[in-house]
Write a structure and sequence with these properties.
With 159 residues, the chain is an all-alpha fold. It has helices spanning 6-34, 44-80, 85-116, 128-158.
Length: 159
Amino acid sequence: MEGTDAPMILKIAEIVSIVITALAAGMFFGPWLALTISIRTFAPDVFLEIVGRLNTNMARIMTALLPLALLSMIPVLFFSYGVRPDTFIAALAAFALFVAALLVTMLIEVPIVQQIVTWTVPTLPDNWQELRDRWGAFHILRVVASFAGFVFLVVGAVY
């Protein structure tokens, strides 16, 4: 990366990536803060309604936003490689953490939600609370991974 525009291109890439990853991490953090910490107290009908609404409202957005967050980190990695090693390492850590969040989402969270949205109160499986709790435990993992990834990007941009 040579030339007088290179540092500015990196800064723009960092800002874009920070904004997009903040949105993605926020989409995980908001439901955790608003619902997940009290989800065990919901009656089955309320639980099913909330999961259905969240799925409807968030699925399309996150299907685009999480991959976009990952893609937004690629220019930061590219333009910092060999020039700003601390930024590169921080962005690489952020990328790895967001990949982890994506894998948890696709391999664990989405399949559980796809089951839940087919349930009604009379058709709740005997282990519905175990599935709900499994979803909650892995959701915390997504929140931590995405928030830590966001922090790594910010630290890499600042230092």
